[in-house]
Amino acid sequence: MQIEALEKRMTLSDQALDRIVDVIVRGDLKPGERVQEAVLARQLGISRGPLREAIRQLEGRHLLVRTPHIGVRIANPSRAEILDFFMIREALEGVACRLAAERMSVEEIDVLESVLSEHGKQEDVKTGGGYYQSPGDRDFHFKLIKGSRSQRLSDMLLGDLYHFLRIFRYRSSVKSGRAQAAHMEHLAVLSAIRARDSHGAETAMRTHLQHARLSLAQTFEEEARELATHELPLAGE
Q1: How big is the chain by its Cα radius of gyration, in Å?
Q2: pLDDT computed for residue 69 by the predictor
Q3: CB distance 92 to 156 below 8 Å
Q4: Cβ neighbour number for residue 25 with a 10 Å cutoff
Q5: CB atoms within 10 A of CB 59
Q6: Dihedral sign computed on CA atoms, order 15, 130, 61, 154
Q7: Does domain 79-226 have CATH number 1.20.1530.20?
């Protein structure tokens, strides 16, 4: 199978990196949480050598932060910084989508449709639990950016920023009703691309990403309110 052949070509550290990113994306490791190598190696079934190399790479991508005398922790960017990145992403991916509508082959568009068909069958998407996308060719956004045929956009959106955004893309999808809505928005983008409607494709993508940003902002506001409630002194204190 094509996926098996791809996995065989990946180095052990590449596989370790993807597994670590996945546990961060899914929230099994929280922002600010300390990374314990021995525990993580055991949980993921990874030997310590490839794990350490993956950790070094993720430090370079600013997903992990090393503090002297404390160790390695999951990066914990501010909410404002995260939302700024989402706004930047909105502009750049909108342009990438416009170019993809003009430059993708019919065969590539067919593959994109099959990817979305797979996503629509995910139990979490159907039940609203969240919208998880594997990295690379099973990721709708990854395929579109590659389809833009723009090396500049690929460098900006599929470099260090890619894994950082994947974490918060998933968080934006777990709000009630958001996973199904996001899938429908992806289908609208695909429809515009298939019609070679570059303006419509860019507009549909920007609308989709605006909704994702607003969903994440609402999640942050709810978390802040909940935290403030827990920090209020009890009556009589």
Answers
A1: 19
A2: 82
A3: yes
A4: 21
A5: 14
A6: positive
A7: no
The two three-digit tokens of residue 36, written as one number: 């314990």
9-74: CATH number: 1.10.10.10
In the structure encoding, which two tokens stand for residue 222, read together? Answer: 């709810």
Helix spans in the chain (H)? 2-9, 12-25, 37-44, 48-60, 79-103, 106-120, 123-127, 140-147, 151-157, 160-173, 178-194, 198-231
Residue-wise pLDDT for 32-48, tens only, equals 889 888 888 888 888 88
Q: What is the pLDDT of residues 57-113, one digit of tens each?
A: 888 888 889 988 888 998 888 889 989 999 999 999 999 999 999 999 999 999 999
Per domain, the residue ranges of the chain are 9-74, 79-226
Q: Which of 161, 153, 181 is nearest to 82 (CA)?
A: 161
- Relative orientation angle of helices 79-103 and 178-194, to the nearest 10 degrees: 30
Residue 146 CA: distances (Å) to CA of 14, 56, 153: 20, 26, 9
Provide the CA 169 distance to its chain's centre, in angstroms.
4
What is the Cα–Cα distance from 156 to 141, expressed in whole angstroms? 13
**DSSP helix/strand/coil, 30:** coil
- Report in angstroms the alpha-carbon separations of 25 from 1, 18, 112, 117: 26, 10, 22, 22
Q: Which tens digit of pLDDT belongs to each residue from 115-143?
A: 999 999 999 898 888 888 888 889 999 99
Cα-based distances in Å from 41 to 21, 63, 118, 148: 14, 18, 30, 37
Q: Around Cβ 184, how many Cβ atoms within 10 Å?
A: 11
Average pLDDT for 136-155: 94
